Amino acid sequence: MSPRPRANDVKTRLVEAAIRLLDENGPEALQARKLAAEVGVSTMAVYTHFGGMAALVDEVARAGFLRLSAALAEVGETDDPVADIFSLARTYRQAVAEQPQLFAVTFGQSAPGGKRATLSDLTTAEGREAAQEGLEAFAHIVRATERAIAAGRFRPADEYQAAAQLWSALHGFVTLEASGHFGPGEQGIDHILIPLGITMAVGLGDTVDRAGRSAEAARAAWRARTGNAGQGDNE
């Protein structure tokens, strides 16, 4: 007889299966019955480990934030914090583009079975305390913003609120791009995302020339990381 799986193993497998179902079939596939069949357990296991689908959706959102944070952590830091912001934006966009269904749930844009992820205001201390996984992802943008302020590239400001402005612009682009508003492939990166980033940097206190040079440095760093210029890197 094979050993009975531990409770934590089953819980983890349920979350991973939920993400697979989302990726393959969209939010309508995230049902207790389908999820249990995917993992090979009874439907009751979903309720035993999560208490209901609402808590499962929250766990999926947490997993999405952790994946996003891990991707952003790979960017690292250079001596140009504004270039790092552009690099973070490109990485963020790539992560969401690869798993749009997961991140639609993560950011509360999708509500499988009418259940929407519980989100917090990451610009407040109370909200940050209640949403550790989301904060970990957001913190990469906050840190780069804080460094840009310290370097005199951005005006003195609350780093969380300034980072939230950058995040808002970035996520707006990503959402519209996913809906097909900026054409196929990656052409929106050059035409929309990079100019948007320059505009935001200038609005926060940078100069057009310095922001443009940082955007080019980030483009070169992306090419070095991926080994592929891509459609969004046309000269």
From TrEMBL:
* InterPro entries per record: Homeodomain-like_sf (IPR009057), HTH-type_TetR-like_transc_reg (IPR050109), HTH_TetR (IPR001647), MT1864/Rv1816-like_C (IPR025996), Tet_transcr_reg_TetR-rel_C_sf (IPR036271)
PANTHER family, sorted: HTH-TYPE TRANSCRIPTIONAL REGULATOR BETI (PTHR30055:SF234), HTH-TYPE TRANSCRIPTIONAL REGULATOR RUTR (PTHR30055)
Q: What is this protein called?
A: TetR family transcriptional regulator
The residues covered by the HTH tetR-type domain are 8-68
Entry keyword set: DNA-binding, Transcription, Transcription regulation
Keyword Transcription regulation attributed: yes
A GO molecular function annotation here is:
DNA-binding transcription factor activity
Tell me the organism's taxonomic lineage.
Answer: Bacteria, Bacillati, Actinomycetota, Actinomycetes, Pseudonocardiales
Q: Which domain of life is it from?
A: Bacteria
Q: Which Pfam family would be a valid example here?
A: TetR_N
User: What is the native source organism of this protein?
Assistant: Amycolatopsis rifamycinica
